[in-house]
C-alpha cells in the first residue's frame, strides 16, 4: 500500500520543517509526500528543497486552501491519501503504518490528535479524540479530526474531492459526503494519537473564523437536505469542553 501525504502551505518557513521531518521519519510503509505551495515569499521552498523525500512540489497562486488541496489530490499517486498541514506533524514514526494496518479492511480511517500551544509545543491544550464519533454527529457539526483522516483514492475520485467554494469548512463538507451521505463507506478508528496540531489554524484562529465556520457548516448540511438549527449546531461545544480535560493515548 502506498500512502500519499499532501501538505498545503503558504509562507510556512517557521513551522514546515517539523512537518517535513515527521513525514520523512515514517517507517514500515511506502510514502509519497506532495507539497502544494501557494507562492510563498519567505524561505518555505528553500526549506522544502532540503528534504529529498518530497516527491512533488508545486508553487503557484491558488483560490484558497481547498483549491490547493484539490491540486494535491490531482497529483497524488498513492492508494490512500491524507493531508498534513504545514504547521502540524506526526507524533510517532509509525503513524502511517498504523493507518495502513487499519485500512486493510476499510475505505477510510480516522485517529486522534493533540492541539498544542503555538509557542510551547510540549504544552497540550486539547486532546481531540475520534473515540465515540459516529456519523450522525455530523448533523450537529461535530466531526472527527480531519488531519488524521486517510481515504482510499477511489473514494476521493468518486466524491470529487473538496468543494473549493468553502473557505473554512470544506473538510467538514467532504466528511459529510464521505460518512453521512455515502452510507456504504467502510471506516475504522485508529486508537492512537497520530498528529500534533498547532493551535491557531484557519478554523480556530478567532471568533470571526468560528462564526464563519458555523455558517459554512449550516450551508453544507442544508444544501444536502440535512436539517439543522443554529441551536443544535452550538450543542457540539460540550464535546469540545470534555476534550480539554481528556488525555491522549
Question: How confident is the prediction overall: mean pLDDT?
Answer: 91
Q: What's the CATH superfamily, by name?
A: Spore Coat Polysaccharide Biosynthesis Protein SpsA, Chain A
Alpha-beta content class: alpha/beta
Task: Calculate the terminal CA-CA distance, rounded to whole Å.
Answer: 26 Å
Radius of gyration: 17 Å
CATH architecture: Alpha-Beta Complex
Briefly, what CATH class? Answer: Alpha Beta
Relative helix content: 25-40%
Helix-strand pattern, N to C?
EHEHEHEEHEEEHHEHHH
Q: What is the number of E strands? A: 9
Estimate the global geometry from the Cα principal axes. Answer: globular
Query: Any idea how many domains?
Result: 1
Percent strand equals: 15-25%
**Count, helices:** 9
Largest sheet: 9 strands, mixed
* CATH topology tier name: Spore Coat Polysaccharide Biosynthesis Protein SpsA, Chain A
Spans of 5+ residues with little confidence (pLDDT < 50)? none
Write up this protein.
Strands 1, 2, 3, 4, 5, 6, 7, 8 and 9 form a 9-stranded mixed beta sheet that branches. The protein has 9 helices and 9 strands. It has a single domain, classed as Alpha-Beta Complex (Spore Coat Polysaccharide Biosynthesis Protein SpsA, Chain A), CATH 3.90.550. The chain is an alpha/beta fold and 249 residues long. The protein is 33% helix and 23% strand. The model has no long low-confidence stretch (mean pLDDT 91).
Amino acid at each position: 500500500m502506498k500512502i500519499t501525504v499532501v501538505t498545503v502551505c503558504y509562507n510556512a518557513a517557521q513551522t514546515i520543517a517539523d512537518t517535513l521531518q515527521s513525514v520523512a521519519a515514517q517507517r514500515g510503509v511506502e510514502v509519497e509526500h506532495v507539497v502544494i505551495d501557494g507562492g510563498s515569499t519567505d524561505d518555505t521552498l528553500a526549506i522544502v528543497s532540503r528534504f529529498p523525500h518530497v516527491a512533488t512540489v508545486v508553487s503557484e497562486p491558488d483560490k484558497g486552501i481547498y483549491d490547493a488541496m484539490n491540486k494535491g489530490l490531482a497529483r497524488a499517486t498513492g492508494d490512500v491519501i491524507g493531508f498534513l498541514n504545514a504547521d502540524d506533524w506526526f507524533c510517532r514514526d509509525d503513524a502511517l503504518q498504523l493507518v495502513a494496518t487499519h485500512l486493510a479492511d476499510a475505505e477510510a480511517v480516522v485517529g486522534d490528535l493533540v492541539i498544542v500551544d503555538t509557542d510551547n509545543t510540549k504544552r497540550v491544550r486539547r486532546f481531540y479524540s475520534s473515540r465515540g464519533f459516529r456519523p450522525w454527529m455530523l448533523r450537529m457539526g461535530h466531526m472527527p479530526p480531519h488531519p488524521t483522516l486517510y481515504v482510499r483514492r477511489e473514494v476521493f475520485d468518486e466524491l470529487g474531492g473538496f468543494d473549493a467554494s468553502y473557505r473554512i469548512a470544506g473538510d467538514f463538507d467532504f466528511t459529510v459526503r464521505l460518512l453521512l451521505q455515502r452510507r456504504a463507506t467502510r471506516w475504522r478508528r485508529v486508537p492512537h494519537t497520530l498528529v500534533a496540531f498547532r493551535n491557531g489554524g484557519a478554523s480556530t484562529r478567532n471568533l470571526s473564523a468560528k462564526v464563519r465556520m458555523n455558517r459554512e457548516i449550516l450551508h453544507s448540511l442544508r444544501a444536502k437536505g440535512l436539517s439543522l438549527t443554529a441551536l443544535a449546531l452550538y450543542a457540539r461545544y460540550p464535546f469540545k469542553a470534555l476534550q480539554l480535560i481528556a488525555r491522549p493515548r
